[in-house]
Amino acid sequence: xxxxxxxxxxxxxxxxxxxxxxxxxxxxxRAEIAEFQxxxxxxxxxxxxxxxxxxxxxxxxEAVFNAASALERVCDGGGDxxxxxxxxxxxxxxxxxx
Length: 98
What we know:
Elements: H1 2-20, H2 22-39, H3 43-58, H4 62-75, H5 80-96
């Protein structure tokens, strides 16, 4: 049982380390939102959303996972206002964990 307790502790530490990156992720997302508003480019938003959804899901961070998944989906065909709203929701989810 000592091994599984050590593993649990290691996973908890990795989760906390991941959460510590949310400030940087939110800052990057703010820059990508500004870029989207000026040029309409969605690829950076979609790429960040995809990466965040995968990792957040692994660490059971449901709010971040759900917001990132929603942004990734709407980047493929949602209107600009829908994409902007989803990006802002993801930013808010990241900032809520800081």
